[in-house]
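@channel sequence for tomorrow's demo:
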Amino acid sequence: MSTVVSSPLPALFVSHGSPMFALEPGSTGPALTAWAQALLQVPRGIVVLSPHWMARGLAVMTNPTPATWHDFGGFPSALYQLQYPAPGSTALAGEVLGLLSQSGLSAQSDAARPLDHGAWVPLMHLFPQANVPVVQVALPVGYGPKQVFALGQALAGLREQGVLVIGSGSMTHNLGEFFGGGRATSPYVLEFSRWVESAIVRGDRTALLNYRELAPHAHRAHPSEDHFLPLFFALGAAQWGGDVPVHADYLSREVMYSILAMDSFALSTTPVATTV
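structure tokens (generated this afternoon):
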């Protein structure tokens, strides 16, 4: 056995899909598990942005023992029995607050914030032992792609300190069509997803920041932007689209329930630390 060591850690974008992703992992869940298991070293902490915590301004979770919040309704009872007892970290939260301040971004601390399903559902697949401290960052109401990208950029340095930065959203997210269900994969889902992938591979920051006007079916894929914005958090944390090429390692291109694209990928400038 040999090892390949790299630093900093990648930034990660995950599509968390429906809450049922916790019980119905498809091919995406095992792919996330395999990716995390291939890391040579367990991250010392996780910083995650989810669209299920939207606040009037910037906020950072400082809760040392965040509860598992089942922030949804109408699903099977087994889903509400699931717990993800990962600890929080006041120390890591302090680092996040400090980096935001250094970038001119004022944020409040939230000592009561629980883990919403946009955080704990994908983390159940990534780190099922719940042994890595988690700190959530709120998505401020009114932020667009450029602001969320800058938010990720402000926290890019954490990756050099052994922290995994995650944007948890959805590559496509049309709830009206989701509840319709029962159809074959809609062509627009693939057209939109592959347009995004092409822009990421090209490093075309201008195109992606203006996806609302340029991407095919953007408004159908995302009637509102909230579930797409975490993508820009991950891209900003990876310093994507700058002078140094950033590689996107796609972990999943699965489509669930005909309209939820589960695209998930790691963004890095060097090979990730693995055992081979």
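heads up for whoever presents: Residues 187-202 form the longest helix (16 residues).
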